[in-house]
Amino acid sequence: MSEVMIHADRLTKHYGSFTAVHDASFTVQRGQVVAFLGPNGAGKSTTMRMLTGFLAPTRGSAAIAGFSVASHRAQAAQCVGYLPENGPLYPEMTPLALLRFFGRARGMSRAAVEDRVAEVVKLCAIRDVLEKPIAKLSRGYRQRVGLANALLHEPDVLILDEPTAGLDPNQIRQVRGLIRELGLTSTILLSTHILQEVEAVADWVIFIHRGRIVFDDSLEAFRSGANSLDTRFHELTGAHPAPTEAA
Questions:
Q1: Dihedral sign (CA 125, 130, 133, 136)
Q2: What is the DSSP string of the chain?
Q3: Cα Rg, the chain, nearest whole Å
Q4: Would you give the end-to-end CA distance of the chain in angstroms?
Q5: Residue 174 near residue 204 (C-beta atoms within 8 A)
Q6: Which has the closest alpha carbon to 206: 196, 227, 221, 185?
Q7: pTM exceeds cut of 0.85
Q8: What is the Cα–Cα distance from 116 to 3, expressed in whole angstroms?
Q9: Phi/psi at 154 (nearest 5 deg)?
Q10: What is the pLDDT of residues 39-69, one digit of tens each?
Q11: 42 in Cβ contact with 206 (< 8 Å)
């Protein structure tokens, strides 16, 4: 039987009279790699921050691996690795120091931290920069350090917000390859507005536009009936009015 690893139930977020996300409901099953697609400003990052507990919804609820993000925050956090668009990296620290710090902050033993650091360093290919200050790293390496940190505690769920934003073509290829590899063992929700990203890594598409979920189906269904993914993107962003009231 399928197992729901991410559950959003009518997630809504108001900022004064502006509604950033309106009644967003969807599920992600174990083993899926889901592209959370939409134009800039559609509500992707806000939704992801609510899913991970970094932002409280105005109404609605979220659960990770069956744990309510509101009432069982610690258990939900243990099951999820989160890479924000601008990851929480301390620029004065080295990647090695940062990974050790976050490992201990998560309650891992020193031995477990060292073993796991060695694994994620290899997986994310950051050995060459382990002792360099993060402030001196390229955007690509910072992204990989952030991903290593998200993977450190071996989460069942990965939530990645625009992981290839700002990278050069070689770095994009490397990160996408890593996401495909991680998708063999983890459930992944990946936000993007880049259509090539969807085809490269995803098997399912959830599309958000102006704060509303307007599509939730397989990649094949997303392609169906359109001459191109660009055409489909345009169709989904052209017919849905924005919610205007905080109700």
A1: negative
A2: ---EEEEEEEEEEEETTEEEEEEEEEEEETT-EEEEE--TTSSHHHHHHHHTTSS--SEEEEEETTEETTTSHHHHHHHEEEE-SS----TTS-HHHHHHHHHHHTT--HHHHHHHHHHHHHHHT-GGGTTS-GGGS-HHHHHHHHHHHHHTT--SEEEEESTTTT--HHHHHHHHHHHHHHTTTSEEEEEES-HHHHHHH-SEEEEEETTEEEEEEEHHHHHTT-SSHHHHHHHHHSS-PPP-S--
A3: 18
A4: 37
A5: no
A6: 221
A7: yes
A8: 26
A9: 55, 55
A10: 989 999 999 999 999 999 999 999 999 999 9
A11: no
Give me the residues paired with residue 8 across strands.
26, 62
Domains within the chain, CATH numbers bracketed: 4-237 (3.40.50.300)
Q: How far, in Å, CA of 220 to CA of 203, rounded?
A: 8
Q: Residues 55, 44: contact at Cβ < 8 Å?
A: no
What sign has the CA pseudo-torsion 200, 204, 209, 215? positive
Instruction: Indicate the angle between helix axes 169-182 and 139-151, nearest 10 degrees.
Output: 10
Side by side, the strands of the sheet bearing 59-64 are 18-29, 4-15, 59-64, 67-68
Q: Both tokens of residue 168? A: 């050069």
Task: Give CA–CA dist 151/179, Å, rounded.
Answer: 11
Specify the amino acid at residue 44.
K
How far is 81 from 153, CA to CA, in rounded Å? Answer: 8
Tens digit of each residue's pLDDT (9 = 90 or more) over 120-137: 999 888 999 999 999 999
Residues 155, 244: Cα–Cα separation, whole Å: 37
